[in-house]
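In this section we walk through a basic example: taking a raw amino acid sequence and producing a predicted 3D structure, encoded as discrete structure tokens. The instruction is simple. Fold the sequence below.
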Amino acid sequence: MWRDLARALAILVSMSLGSLAQQTSAKAKFYERLRSNATGPIDNVGIRFWFEDARAIPFTANQAADIGGRFTLHIRNNVGHGFLTVWSIGEKGGVEMTPREGRYAGFMMGKQEYVVPGEFQFKTGATAKRVIIVFSRSQTEQASDPASAEERLAEILRWTGRNGRQVISESDESTPEQVGRYVLNQDGAAVATEIVVR
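The resulting token sequence is shown next.
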């Protein structure tokens, strides 16, 4: 009897831990929001980004660095609308890689996958270049220049909310059609992340 009770308890604990892991998974929350037609407050706003080689094979930044070569950067959001800026920052300053629409920063992004103009080269021994991505539902939350992109990155990553840290992330290196890094704001505000390209 005690063995059966212990076995049942172990199964319940295992199921609870699995459920808890799913609840806190950035990827799971990303796709839950993407599939949702919910009304009311928007939470779990995020992006998925990945690199593709010339054969259109997706890679995470770590995988691209391991392989080396030239890659394009792809980004998708999970709310269907918002504003995106991508900044390339090197030793001699930085440049905005997303087009400006009007006088404010922030490319208006819909449900479509966005391909950042240009290529990124991963090469052993190369000087590191930082890429900062900022995505928000409001254009007023965007970075306006390289310095403000760095400030927004630091600020957004410090935010805490009802679920602890607002911004969470995780990578998937193997699931077909889902390879990439998922960066998500659990409270629905802006997200920011940094990629180091070397």
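Looking at the output, two observations stand out. The chain has one domain: 26-197. The mean pLDDT is 88. In the next section we compare this with other chains.
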